[in-house]
Fold this sequence. Notes:
The protein is an alpha/beta fold. The chain has a single domain, classed as Ribonuclease Z/Hydroxyacylglutathione hydrolase-like (Metallo-beta-lactamase, Chain A). Helix content is 22%, strand content 21%. It contains eleven helices and 18 strands. The protein has helices spanning 10-25, 61-64, 128-142, 160-163, 166-172, 190-202, 288-297, 322-328, 348-351, 356-365, 396-399; strands at residues 91-96, 105-109, 112-116, 149-150, 152-154, 174-175, 177-180, 206-209, 237-242, 270-275, 278-282, 308-310, 332-335, 369-380, 383-391, 393-395, 402-407, 412-415. Strands 8-7-5-3-2-1-17-18 form an eight-stranded mixed sheet, with helices on one face. Strand 7, helix 6 and strand 8 (206-209) form a beta-alpha-beta unit. The longest helix has 16 residues, at 10-25. It is globular, with a radius of gyration of 20 Å. Mean pLDDT is 83; it is low at 1-48, 54-81 and 420-427.
Amino acid sequence: MPSTPPPLPPRLSRRLSTRRRLVGVVAGALVAGVVPVAGAGCITDGYAAREPPRPPAGPERADDRPDDRPDDRPDDRAGSSLAPTTDPERRMVVHLLDVGQGAATLIEFPCGAMLIDTGGEQNDAFDAVPRLKEQLDAFFDRRVDLRRTLDLLVITHPHIDHVRGLPMILREYVVKNVVDDGRPGDDLVTEQLRALRDYIAAHDTGYRAVDETALISKGGLRDDVVDPFRCKAVDPSVRALSGAVPRDPGWGTDNYGKMHFDNENNHSVVVRVDFGNASLLITGDLEEHAIAGLLERYRGTRWLDVDLYQVGHHGSHNGTTRALVAAMTPHVALISMGPERRHVPWTAWTYGHPRADVIDRLERGVSSSRPHTTVDVASGPKKFSSRGLDKAIYGTGWDGAVDVVMDVDGRIEVLTPAPAPGARAVR
Ligand SMILES: [Zn+2]
């Protein structure tokens, strides 16, 4: 695999240094980034399913840092010294791509890249497929050493807002390994899943369907397909913590009489990534019944304890429970959703994403802060209002694409390189 990645492009580097100066000047008002984390846990000792290591001494991690606001951590005010390292071998970057209502998350490691989902929104005002290609092309233009290769593509579940870009991805880039939940999907995704099956059959592509029977231990599933990365200085760890459920655990029906078990959301592949002391969790569109199952599986362990949470189900009322937030103790939360302003079907506006009660839950559980901003949140479908936000909760519908730099020591910096494209004239 390629070794040393080139530095960030000048534009991003400039933003990094600008942000660092700002942190130094007005520390109390800014998030960003500077959140040293004790013992978030990386598994670097082969494939043994072991829990993330605990902090060397002292209380549980959650109690270690009840609040990381700069005001409460005078040592953090120094600014630049606490920003993530600029050594590209010792950091990963989580790129929450802007695909409107849907999801696509690119994780950049020193020696490779993985993409989780290939959403999202498509209507007269916005088309996620060219937007996704544009963002990935820009990434691979910078990381020419990766030769337009995704070492891993994860499809959390076969819904169109997560698979729409699949044919384009498989046409434009090399995909070495694919992980999904093994479910066939419905008529809306026939073309996309056929493209995936054909690609895997025609190439030397690793494939793993994650279901409960594959999860042999409490540490989830980690093998050469789920984690193909072998970075030299710091080796990332990727594992699937949950996947398709073979039999209905008795989840019952929703308000429309539909079985929760028949809802693809509840079979989402759940992914945890560790990079040194940095960690993140992506739960796809898992809803509350399945989230309860995830919590039960990992009860008494630290596998769900992470620094960065990609908010489940686009901030839907049923995608993030209080108990999940308590188990994660995240510093930063990212929501992949569309902006409120596109008033057509299948958008954040029609679904009412993100929900105010989820933002309330996250505000209580997310420990870092962001510069004060005003955002749109929903009390129901098509019902939005504005509110202030100070915690480190970011969303593509508010911020456009979001980059989170996480270094091996657990320091985090959040960058919002551009305003949401829809804020300007739609191209
Ligand atoms: Zn979705």
